[in-house]
Amino acid sequence: MVEWNMYDEEQVRLMGEMCIVVDENDRPLGGDSKKNCHLMTNINTGLLHRAFSVFIFNPEGKLLLQQRADEKITFPGYYTNTCCSHPLMTPEETVEENQAGARKAAQRKLEHELGIPAEEVPLEKLEFLTRIHYLAPSDGLWGEHEVDYIFIFQGDVTCNLNPNEVKSVKYVSKDELKELFETAESKGILLTPWFRLIVENFLYKWWDNLDNLAQFKDTKTIHRLLPQ
To answer: Which pathway is this protein engaged in (predicted)?
Structure first.
């Protein structure tokens, strides 16, 4: 049994949202609650859901990071990419063509978490790169098991943080991010596992080519970055 009284009321409410359950090839199987999708007891039996991760760069080429709020149920206080969440089982966010559902979800959550107005991140400017399949426990009870759609956006954005979702944000250069990764453990800084996987496997080559990301777009591959 989950003892909900130990968690933030708003975060508990969001656990009732319906995520998109998929098979390992990202084919939709139906919906299930965010709670059920993130319980390790279900993850350990193979329950897999769809997610997205957004990386926003400013015009100078710096990456916007967020620190997740302490109220979050999974990975509280961890540093991560600009925004990461889930498309939901709604008509708008289940559209498969051109990753339309995941794009709409990304735009929705950028506004919900960081207060970035939708008009500042047009759907067609969210550049889809690829998908990763990963599994990571948060603690003994909760974790993540996702097919994660990765989007990059470059431009000026206005942040008005939702403190229930985001503790802080900051822009970092490539060298600053490398230093963060090198010193995080010694400084007691926590980094989300999906953020680490994307950075270590892909991000720097994308970062070097922000003006020509189309060459990296891969709509067919799902990169399996699973524990050995």
So the answer is: Isoprenoid biosynthesis; dimethylallyl diphosphate biosynthesis; dimethylallyl diphosphate from isopentenyl diphosphate: step 1/1
**Contact 134/128 with Cβ under 8 angstroms?**
no
From 37, 83, 84, 113, the catalytic residue: 84
Q: Is pLDDT above 80 for 211?
A: yes
- Has 127 been annotated as catalytic? no
Domains in the chain, start-ordered, CATH in brackets? 4-209 (3.90.79.10)
Percent of the chain whose pLDDT exceeds 90: 96
Q: What is the dihedral of CA 206, 195, 170, 140, to 10 degrees?
A: 180
146 is an active site residue: yes
pLDDT value at 1 more than 80: no
On the question of pLDDT at 5 being above 90, the answer is no
- Name the nearest CA neighbour of 98 among 56, 134, 126: 126
Which tokens go with 67? 């620190």
Are residues 32 and 22 in contact, defined by beta-carbon separation less than 8 angstroms? Answer: no
Catalytic residue among 113, 144, 146, 165: 146
Sign of CA dihedral 34, 78, 8, 10: negative
